[in-house]
Specification:
The N and C termini lie far apart (68 Å). By secondary structure, this protein is mainly alpha-helical. The chain has 21 helices and three strands. Bound molecules: zinc ion. The site of zinc ion has 4 residues, from helix 10 and helix 11.
Length: 494
């Protein structure tokens, strides 16, 4: 057997283990009875250990380097490149360090849940301090040339640097803060109280499946279930799972489903021949988020979309029957500075991310002590969003990420927002008036374009290269700012 074939076979084994872990995790978040928790943790732990061993041992590393000489086709070359990167990332971190980090993460998660419930930042601070110390060590193991943040961010977004984030937020900050302020001070107010109430779960489930199917999520190769936190997970190209959640705000299930379906259609769009290879699936968190945001915000929060689907919604929920298309469109696009990132609207969202990015950088570089984090957090909310959290639970204790050791992750959310508009503008330039298509419920040309340009490329090109290939320029803020500005100035009559 050639090294390349050997490598593919070995990767397929690792992929089978990862799929098994993903199925167990999906089950845990959807249907698993509580009594299974302990055994499930053991099962996942054992499979993860075996997968880690298989993908980091010397034999695997040798196969990767031998395959470099054998790979001829573009796909094989790309596959070896991806595996070399993964192997390097995993083997740069010593086994004891990885074990120490997961031990700390387990404790930190418990500490964080408790501190958030009791609004006790001081109780969590020592653990958080250790987690940032672990992140500093991790960055040193991984290596970087310019900024310590680069090493951490690169794990989620290959090739992205702190300097890219600084540039991105510099461009966003002024116009975004200005727009939020203008809406607050001069915008025609929006009352969305009609969207809050009791909505039967089975009807929400039926309606969200209806729209998700209409935009092109393939239910022959996937399904949707309910979970406390919406997510999308992939077992193979032929089996992609979405979850949504039912809350007293009807937009929660609708936009949660569209968001996850965006992730899901990206995953379903890889060429079948790439199943069980490292080329299948989305290439980075930022590009992935650009697709979920496209279907959630650009398509799902457009007037054209509701021209098509508002009658269907009103047939299911007759209490909404007298809302006009114009009013509905304004309600689902209401902008309001709030404390909680995951509930933030499209306009304020990046400001939440900016706060976290600045704080992460300052703590990592020692400019800010962990104990002073709440004060820095609150001051930034006041300056960017015009509101000051009254407690740390709704301030710097709100996100789970830092307790998990996911430091360097947040900017990918904003990259997704920027890229969603940048890619969309290229799509519109190619396809012409897509509003008409959307209003008629014809999504195939839109999905087809995204499949061809983005989804079918899988992980073949590094994210920065993919952005250049698709849009002809590097990631920038112009398309996003222009699109967002035009939409919300019209909605708020500014
Ligand atoms: Zn997402």
């Amino acid at each position: 057997m050639s090294a390349l074939n050997d490598l593919k076979a070995r990767y397929a084994d690792i992929n089978a283990l990862s799929s098994a872990i993903a199925i167990m995790d999906w089950d845990q978040q959807t249907y698993m009875p509580r009594g299974a928790a302990e055994a499930r943790a053991e099962h996942v732990g054992a499979l993860s250990r075996i997968a880690h061993e298989l993908s980091t041992d010397d034999a695997f590393g040798k196969l990767v380097s031998q395959s470099k000489n054998e790979a001829q086709s573009e796909d094989d070359l790309a596959m070896v490149r991806v595996l070399q990167r993964e192997y390097d990332l995993k083997t740069k971190l010593p086994a004891e360090f990885v074990a120490e980090k997961s031990r700390l993460a387990a404790i930190a998660h418990e500490d964080w849940v408790k501190a958030r419930a009791e609004n006790n930042f001081a109780g969590f601070a020592p653990t958080l301090e250790r987690m940032f110390e672990i992140a500093r060590q991790e960055a040193e193991f991984l290596g970087y040339t310019d900024h310590i943040y680069d090493a951490l961010l690169d794990q989620y977004e290959e090739g992205a640097k702190a300097a890219d984030c600084v540039r991105m937020f510099e461009a966003l900050k002024g116009p975004n803060v200005e727009l939020v302020k203008a809406i607050k001070e001069r915008g025609r107010p929006i009352d969305d109280s009609r969207l809050h109430g009791e909505w039967p779960n089975p009807l929400q489930s039926e309606f969200t499946e209806h729209i998700v199917k209409a935009i092109g999520f393939d239910f022959e190769r996937g399904r949707q279930d309910a979970a406390p936190h919406p997510f999308c997970t992939t077992f193979s190209i032929g089996d992609v799972r979405l979850t949504t959640r039912y809350k007293p705000y009807i937009g929660s299930a609708i936009f949660g489903s569209l968001h996850e379906a965006g992730h899901g259609m990206y995953e379903q769009g890889s060429p079948m021949a790439w199943d069980r290879t490292p080329l299948a699936g989305g290439v980075s968190l930022g590009i992935h988020e650009s697709q979920s945001r496209t279907w959630e915000n650009i398509v799902g929060r457009s007037k054209a979309f509701w021209q098509r689907f508002l009658p269907d919604l009103q047939a299911k929920f007759p209490t909404l029957a007298d809302i006009s298309l114009d009013d509905w469109y304004r309600m689902i696009n209401k902008v309001e500075p709030s404390f909680i990132r995951v509930e933030a609207d499209e306009v304020t969202y990046n400001l939440h991310v900016l706060v976290r990015f600045e704080i992460e950088c300052d703590v990592l570089t020692g400019k800010l002590a962990v104990k002073d984090m709440p004060e820095a957090w609150n001051a930034k909310y006041e300056s960017y969003l015009g509101i000051r959290p009254k407690s740390d639970s709704e301030g710097c204790l709100q996100d789970v990420h830092w307790s998990m050791g996911a430091i360097g992750y947040f900017p990918t959310y904003s990259m997704g927002n920027l890229l969603s508009y940048q890619i969309w503008n290229k799509l519109v330039a190619d396809l012409g008036d897509v509003d008409d298509m959307i209003a008629r419920g014809e999504f195939a040309p839109i999905l087809g374009w995204l499949q061809e340009k983005v989804y079918r490329q899988g992980c073949k090109f590094p994210p920065k290269e993919l952005v250049m290939r698709v849009t002809g320029k590097p990631m920038g803020a112009e398309d996003y700012l222009a699109g967002l500005g035009a939409k919300y100035r019209a909605i708020y009559e500014l």
